[in-house]
Each structure stands twice: as structure tokens, then as C-alpha cells.
Amino acid sequence: MNGAETLVHTLLDGGVEVCFANPGTSEMHFVAALDKVDGMRCVLGLFEGVVTGAADGYYRIKDRPAATLLHLGPGLANGLANLHNAKKANSGIVNIVGDHATGHLQLDAPLTSDIDMLARPMSNWVHSSPSASTIQADGQEAIRQANSRPGRIATLILPADTAWTETTFPASQPDAFGQNAIRRANALVQTEPEAVLSDESIRQAAQALRLGPTTLLLLGGRALRANATVWAGRIAAATGCAVMSESLVPRLERGAGRVMVPRLPYAVDPTLAVLAQFDKIVLVGAKEPVAFFAYPGKPGVLSRPGCECITLASRTDDLQAALQALSDELGASTGPVALVAAPNVAQAMESFHGSINPDNVARLLMALMPANAIVADEAVTTGRSFDKAAQGAAPHDWLNVTGGSIGFALPAAVGAAIAAPDRKVIALEGDGSGMYTLQALWTMVRENLDITVVIFANRAYKILLGEFSGVGAGVPGQRATDMLSLDRPDLDWVALAKGMGMQACRVSDMSEFSVGLQKALAVQGPALVEVML
């Protein structure tokens, strides 16, 4: 057994059962090991940003890490943007990055690079495995790191000679690999003791919440799972406080029958207006609200001056338990649950005609969304109208581009569909951001994933037109406009999708959109609808 085979066994033994891959020469022994060791599902991405984004989407739904396989420093570098999103989402991922054989590094061959340096900004843990004899322990530590609370990015560098060198294990351990994987995987999860909430932090949070409408309960991370938001609903019923979430959250479980937790707006001015009414903000898995960028004449911190932020729990804590403890302190744990969303019957019964605009699009999407769907959202401009309409839709999970690095939704949809093959996945994508990782369409078709892709085609980086004005750059001239537009030539997403084997249609009014979306959702596999705005 060589080092590569040992690593594949170790990954499986630790519950890592999916590998999103874009390999090269240095990883060929790992690729060969995938033929020799049963159990690993291997998913090819035609660009490393697809690979890393899929691993992010997989973790957000599965709550268990997948592996990536990347080729040397340049391959890792191609995947860093979506690793940035994954790190901001606290997603657990085990990156396997091939490297030259140790004796070859001194020759400074063309693909030689400082992989450790490239990995560290987007990783929580980086380690190079020095020999085949250490690879089992190194792999186990990578899995442990990825499974820590909250999830972490673990990057294990695999030199080619570590992969091809033979190694042995004691014959007295016939069950060293491959059996009882889940039992041993659980032993690697959350080995650090959970932080214990202090009585003082609970008391301070409860005291602030008793002030009622002038206090905001702001949620983030796993506080937005349905089993946690129900406690927020009880707290709101008992105190009259407001409940909201951070703007960009990894996974929001919402819909009819669940507690409504509206997100803070993305833009500065609407957020300032929302937060102006609060004297105190209680943070549960969230951070103090700040602007996405600096804007001339506008504050970076978005809570009003004098507002006190009180941290009940950080993302490293058990956030459901924190909310339950707070509910106990307030005497609300057996009381009613406020803010529960009712089904939007009027929305579902509405006939959809006329021109396409964000409000109409939101109503149609939420009316047709199947129960238990997963939405990967990167409809950056059009999607700002979706939050309110989604509250009364069928229960669903909503994934956001947490780090702001575009090219997220299509790869994340791939990972989510593999994590939950029994659930419909809907990718909401802008035409500009979609072009960063359009190779994900090919992977969707190859794996026959049940994904409906909706492309909002405004043929511009529309968000940047607003940002141009927002930062005080004035009115764009012709050269600036050319940097912000996607014409000459116009993108043809129907042709792009069909070129990768995916059925697709284009719609230009709400009646066509209604028909096209219903047909796409009825497909048990990938389909695309291009919506002309």
C-alpha cells in the first residue's frame, strides 16, 4: 500500500466520502488509488473554483466535510476565491494539494511554487505530509481540523513521493480502514470541548432583550437553523424584541411554518435606516454589522452611535443551546412562538403576466418552489427583492455567498445536490457572476444532478453600476461603461448550457417565465432558464 492509497483509506475511515477533483501529474497516484480503494465518490470539476465551491456547498448541507484534489500551487490558486467564501461560511473542507516530489523542488521546475504561502490566507490549518509513514496521522488531523466547530479549511499538501512510496501497517489491525467509518468519523468530530456560556453573558443579554422593540436579536451561523430560530421566536414573543440575521449567511432555514428571520439589507443606507431604531443588539453567532465597503461620507459601523452590542455566543458555541438558555432565563421556553410565517396563499394563486421585474420574479419563484428545496443564491442585484417573498414560501434552505467572492452559486449547487440527492436544488445566478464558474454546468450534467439553474441576464455587472455612484466616482463614461457591461457580444446562456449537454430555454416575460420554470423544475436532472431583464 502506498501513501496515496493510505490517504484515501484514511479519508473514508474519517467519514470523508466525496472528493471534488481537478488533478494533474503530481496527483496521479492519488487518482490511481481511487480505483484501488472502494467507497470514494469522485466528482470532476473543469475549473478549480468549481471544485472548491462545490465542497463549500456540500458542507453547508451535509454538515460533514468533503475533500478537494487540486494540482500544485496554481491549481490551489484557481480555487482560492471560493475557498474564501467557504472560510467566511465556516465550512469544513479537506484540501489535498499535490506537490512536486521533495527532491524535485530544488530544481525550480516551471510549476514550483510556495503552496504553503498560497494556502494560508484561505485555510485554518496547513500541513505538508513529509512521508508515507506519516500520511495516516496527517490525514486524520486534517479531518479533525475540518470537523472542528465551526467548520475549518484544512489544507494537506501531498508531495508526489509521499504519494508513491510504499508503507505498511500492522497485520493485527484488519479493521484499520474501511469499516465502521461513521463511528470513527464521529470520534474525529468536535474533539475540543464546547465553550460554556457564562451566566453573566446570559443575564446581560436577557436584560437587554427585556427592553423590547429597542433591542435587536441578531443571528448568524447555525443560529439560523430551524431548530434554533424557534427559540428566537419564543424570545420575541416574551419580550417584543426584533429578530434579524446578518445579510450574508451560510444557510438559512426558512419558509411557511418556520420563524421569520429577515436579513439585514446589503446596502449601507437601508441598513442604517433599519438599525437606527435599536439601542442594543444581542449577537448570537453574528458580528457587529459593518458596511461591505468603505464609502465616502458614510460610516463603516452600521449600528447607530451609542448602540451597545452584547455578544451572547460566537460561532464556536452551540448556538441552539445558547438561544435555549437565553429563553430559559427569560421564562419563555414553554411560551408561544412569535414570527411564524404563514403560507402565502395569495402569492401562490396569483397569475403571472406582464413584464419581468424583481418583485414579480420573487413572487413566481416562491410560489413554484417545491417543499424542502435548497436555493444557492447569487442573484446579486435582482435577488434583493427575494427575502420578503421567501418567508411564506414552502420550507426551504437558502445558501448565500458569504464572502462576497463571485462565482459561488453554480458550484455550491453542485455540492448541495450531491449532499442531498433527494432534494431539488435551485441556483439563482446573475449572468456576470455565472461566467466565473460556468464550467459547473458540465459537472451538473455529467453527474445528472437535480438542479434548476435560473440565470438573470441583464447583460451588465449591474451591481457595479450602483457601486460606481456609491463610492463617488460620478457618472461612468464610455470606457468605464465598457468595464461594467456584458455586450458586444451578448452572452447566450441557452447556447452555453446546450453546449454542455443541458436543456435550456430563454424567457422574456412573466408568462413565458412561469411556463419555462415549471418545465425546468419538473425535470429530474439539470435544466436552465435564462431570464431576460
Write the layout of secondary structure elements.
Elements: H1 3-13, E1 18-22, H2 28-36, E2 41-44, H3 48-62, E3 66-70, H4 72-78, H5 80-88, E4 93-99, H6 115-119, E5 125-128, H7 135-146, E6 153-159, H8 160-164, H9 181-188, H10 199-209, E7 215-219, H11 226-239, E8 242-245, E9 252-254, H12 268-275, E10 280-284, E11 308-313, H13 319-329, H14 345-349, H15 358-368, E12 373-378, H16 386-390, E13 396-400, H17 409-419, E14 425-430, H18 431-434, H19 440-446, E15 451-457, H20 462-470, H21 478-484, H22 493-499, E16 503-507, H23 510-522, E17 527-532
Parallel strand pairs: 1-2, 1-3, 3-4, 4-6, 5-6, 7-8, 7-10, 10-11, 12-13, 12-14, 14-15, 15-17, 16-17
Antiparallel strand pairs: 9-13
Can you tell me about this structure?
α3 (48-62) packs parallel to α5. It is built from 23 helices and 17 strands. The chain folds into three domains: 3-188, Thiamin diphosphate (ThDP)-binding fold, Pyr/PP domains (Rossmann fold, 3-Layer(aba) Sandwich), CATH 3.40.50.970; 199-329, TPP-binding domain (Rossmann fold, 3-Layer(aba) Sandwich), CATH 3.40.50; 345-532, Rossmann fold. The chain is globular. β5 (125-128), α7 and β6 (153-159) form a beta-alpha-beta unit. With 533 residues, it is an alpha/beta fold.
